[in-house]
């Protein structure tokens, strides 16, 4: 997928090393959180993973289809919101019709469809950030890199981005993110790393002591297969029923997997435990 091998990065000849000796291997279908105090090099690490910056030393291996949401979105571009998303979809190889359709779908999901024809330079900061998130998802990237992407979004849009992340992971993508909120996707993170003193340290403790919200899905059918989104806990019931309990961030992806299976599962109910 994407590997950094003994990577170092500094800016300018003879400048101080921002990162050095970084080894990181991203696997498909994983969610990775990067932590660290301000100025430690988190954004530099994400830019290296996204292929925006090149290592000063070491090697960055793998060329997955990658999308990146920066902390500050460059809104002063000569496009409308929909035009920009369609343009990026075309760059990623989508047909014009498909790119335009997906642009509309993502603007609607983030609650920005009313601004589809608004020039980027005229958008509010919050709406600009919605477009920034949408542009990263139009072409269904194999590697999604998010640098404080939730900052500036309203509550509904933040929840939608949570769902989009869960969908990408469920579809086999790797997602790497930085966010100031320690609770962000805490129940779904596979691995946590911290940038410390120019290096990368893997956290071995639990991602977060608090368990996030859960969703219970009651289904009828044979034993559900392994590999469902969110790795739901399975509780057998009477008469061929089963209860699947999954972190809320993965619930939409789980329901989609159950409904699109062949044959589809019969869902009796969805509730909070």
From TrEMBL:
One of its GO terms (molecular function) is ATP binding. InterPro entries: AAA+_ATPase (IPR003593), ABC_transporter-like_ATP-bd (IPR003439), ABC_Transporter_VariousFunc (IPR051782), P-loop_NTPase (IPR027417). It comes from the Bacteria. PROSITE patterns: ABC_TRANSPORTER_2 (PS50893). The keyword Membrane does not apply. Keywords: ATP-binding, Nucleotide-binding, Transport. Residues 1-222 form the ABC transporter domain. This is ATP-binding cassette domain-containing protein. It comes from Streptomyces melanogenes.
